Amino acid sequence: AVVRCVGKLNSNRTALFLCDMQEKFRKTITHFPAIVDTSSRMLRACQIIKMPVFVTEQYPKGLGHTVPELGDLSVVTVIDKTQFSMCVNAVMSALPSEIDSVLLCGIEAHACVQQTSLDLLEKNFQVHVIVDAVSSRNPVDRMYALDRMKSAGCWLTTSESAVLALLRDASHPHFKEVQKIIWEPSLDSGLLQPGGREPSGGKL
User: Fold this and answer.
1) Largest CB tally within 10 Å, which of 26, 37, 105, 168?
2) Closest CA to 122 of 153, 93, 82, 86
3) Which fold has domain 14-182?
4) In this predicted model, what pLDDT tens digit does every residue of 102-115 receive, in sequence order?
């Protein structure tokens, strides 16, 4: 029988990609504090579950380094790049061979995030875009990028949904520790409104 691919997550075969959340973008990216806050939750949860995490910085000499609010990166692979996609040799060569699925957070949705997702799809990875952890300077760019990524074959999901999918069971040995992260009050950005739009102003 043919097994249908429905995008189920397995923590043993999944990595977290955190794309270019750097100082220079702080004042220009829509809902930047919320994006970083949600990405930080994903980072902490994935570290607890002991999943591989990769962080990139786009031309840090000009755009600065990753903002400290993202969290403790002392044991995380941080790679600088100039190409927009995160799929640089330094990342892909360090990715464990058993990984076939990637959780993707960061900026900008229509540039580095989108190009990363398309490159990963071409390499036969399942890509799960965390919609409450992805943004752009222009909300319209974000909206169309999410449409483009979904059409290409990415799974669009939320941070909480992804984390619970990784845990699968309340009997998971790290469930209570991760549950505390999920229950923390989140920043209200409007990014999860139906259709990806805020109720007023047309922002995403």
Assistant:
1) 105
2) 153
3) Rossmann fold (3.40.50)
4) 999 999 999 999 99
